[in-house]
Amino acid sequence: MGGRLALVVGSECVALGELGFTGELATGLYGSLTEAGGWRSATADDGPVLNPTAAQLVTAVDAAFEEAGQRQATLLLAFIGHGVATSPEDFYLLGHDSPAVPNSHNAFHLTQEIRERLNQSAVDGLVVLVDACETGQGVIGAARRWTDLLAQSAGRMEMLVAAGEGPAFSGCFTRTMLSTFDGGLPLRGENLLPADLVDPIAGECIQQQPQYLSFTSGAVSVAHGADPGLWLVPNTARHRDAVSGRSAAGFVDQLTRGLLVTPDVREHLDTIVDAGSNRLRVVIGPAGAGKSTLLAMLIRPSLVEGLAVTPEYITAAVFLTAASSIEAVAAELAAQLSARVPGFAEAAQAVHAHRARDEFDIFDLSVRHPLARLSTAGRRVTLVLDGLNQPQEGTRRLLISAIADLTRRHDLRHVRVIVGIRDGTGVEDDPALAHMYRIDVGEPAADDIATAVGSARGSGAPADPSDWVDWIQSLLTETPTDVEGTHVVSGGWLLARMLLEVASSITDGAVAAGIGLDRIVALRVDAALRGMYPETAGATGAFLSIMVAAGVGPVLPIELLDAALTARGFDLHIARIRDMTVALGSLVTRSRPGTPRESLGVTHGALLPGLRVECQKLDVELEDAHRAIVTAIKQSPSDRAADYARGSAVRHCLAYRDSASALHFLVLLQTTRSADNRDLWAAWVPAFIETLGPDHPDTLTTRSREAYHRAESGDLVGAIAAFELLLADRLRVLGPDYPKTLGTRTNLATYRARCGDYIGARTDYKRLFADQRRLLGPDHPDTLRTRNDLASNRADLGDLVGAIADFEQLRIDRARVLGADDPQTLRTRNSLAYWRGANGDFTGARTEFEQLLADSLRIFGPDHPSTLAARNSLAAFRARSGDLVGAATEFTHLLTDRLRVLGPDHPDTLTTRSTLADYHADTGYLPDAIAELEQLLADRLRVLGPDHPDTFATRNDLATRQAENGDLPRAIAELEVLLVAELRALGPTHAATIRTQTTLAHWRSQLVK
Q1: pTM of the model
Q2: Fewest 10 Å CB contacts: which of 10, 202, 334, 564?
Q3: What is the pLDDT of residue 982?
């Protein structure tokens, strides 16, 4: 359930005289909270409660707490009007009929009434705003009498009131709050928190002093609140940021909170900006050195005084994680670019509507090609990709290739890319990034960190600061093991943030004895456990293990975390999960905090070793956490679960070596685009090799799937090379007679034939057929399939008579073994009819095609793909027999049915469109045919990719029709480009390449004439 519910009250007490502004301000505050902040009414009525009686005020508060408790929602209570303090800790909100000197029977005793409701309600955090006189006693009472109840459930509360012991004037508190909502605060984060309003109110309302109180993690504070989920409205000053409104905004908040801009930090920022003429800038440094924070400051330059850039300097930014996929990165960049770059959205639409010869994969479709269309727009585009070392190896390879394209291609000369890479991971040495401008970032000085920690400890500052400096310096040179098992330097500003949270727990003796980063993590976990309710504390181990399994960055949707905890036996619900999250402080990072679309994860990779140790202490196994996340993914129907699964489900399955489930997820994640599927399988091959070893059967399966989709996306030459390597490994590992080895041989022969190597394919098919007869017998379906391939191959080589004889015998054998109505038997009949027609037996072919259609209708029904294929064959035969008009009519009806049954992107639907365009051209409608082929080409590029044989065929057809329509120069230019692409992708002997050579020669000769 969850959500954010608000009750806003404007009340004037008759006994104390008219204020005149409560209704206006209450209405304005309710409007801002609901319209900008997404709050909903906590009662049945939409709007503020105005001038309630004391009894009505109590009823409204009761209804608000009941609704919030049932929904486990965050509750905001705001009161504007008369308030009175009668004695210490006794502060009353006055109703319209309350007396000037109230008691608990005729007014709302803030401290006691809220305490009673906290004792009975399970809200997901409480926010209290009071614009009234003498509110200081209410704060004191809340600090004493609410916090014990909140502590029992590790609850969270924010309270902001207008004044101390004196009066509040003319609604200044609420007026300033509303004006701050409108204008925003440049030095604050993505959302405005109650604590953010203290300074603006104090500065504007000089006759009163606002009071602030926060309770989180079992502790009361009058400093800045610790729960970013208890926010009021989005900060309008952040709307110009690249990540405004995006999931990364919360992570940027965490990176820039309590920012300390040292001279070294400022120098690094200036270096990055000054190097802007370099198309690729790479920020390199050890873990925790502040690379991400530097990039976050470029996104929010107003946080750094005098930095000579604006928020528009960074156009789009992505903070990469282990869960990042190429699809997710492309989608996020495209979303930001569409919102921030004029014309980008239109350019992206145009990419799908028009030809774009160079399009390759989803990144190119979504990002690179639309950017290339804007190269003359006169605006520089700067992209940030932080943490390039984080994604899985396969995804990282795809991202590096994309970055190299963005920073090398001439049509993208207006694009700049800034990348963050952790030193020592080897990513910075990739040859594709060799043209980088390198910016090295070192650790912050130990004395800077010691100074910050000392100030946080206050009266407990170190007795001997030099001991602390020496100790921190030793921490900065620690070398814990990171996620990938390599050693990296840790600490830096991450260490500073951790020390600030546990500074009061670290004694001078502990410093002298020497404690490491893992111990600091342990102290932070211990502090969190001390402030938790027992039920919540019992789930801490499971929570931490799920966070570690999810990985670094705010990656795990909170609903998946909830479901994973349930799978581990802890039914906490979202409110308690947020309590636990806040209690763990900077160990956990959050995006979109306090909303239904919140996500969480571990703040930094350097924390993972220490957190693993804590999981062991709490007797939890990481493999169980991975299983729980997979269970949650399988049970969740949400779009966010599907997005997370695309990047991480396979990783979680492999973590407990369930490679079968990993393969299952990969199959589910496939799309209709072969190019996407090729990249999907290629991205995960390295993970299978690393986890299972190169010779594991499932590793070999991932390689087979990648090679298959490489072929189906048009890269036949690359696919053949991949299948040759795979065959060698399967022969070595599985042996020559293993079914999957035979399957690889089938694939290799098939794609050799498709690549035009009919002789080589025939040799492969013959050897395969002999082995299948020996191993499987002559009637096995695989043996029969190879006979079918051999017959087709014979026809391809020109022996139609021999092929027809082979198909006739195969039809008999398949009918005997599989049955006359088996799809394979019907396919054999279709091939036989086709080659009979090709050999001149039109009567026999027509009879066979008509009978085949009748049988398909009887067996499968009118909408089955096999029936539609039979209709296609009959219509095509009609065309070959000379009835072009009748064939066009049949194909028009067939296209309608294929669109309805198969969808617009199915290969068969696209083939029907291609055939129709040809018939329209042949019957004299050339302009219509050209328009149809142009749209078909755009769709085949999108669905099949640029190197697919069908895409090449469409390009050839389009150029031919353009030439026939009189545009010879354009057609010849297109054919020249096409020939180069086919030579690269298919080779010189492929039928498509030869066809293009012949077509080009013909039209060149016509141009000379």
Answers
A1: 0.77
A2: 202
A3: 84
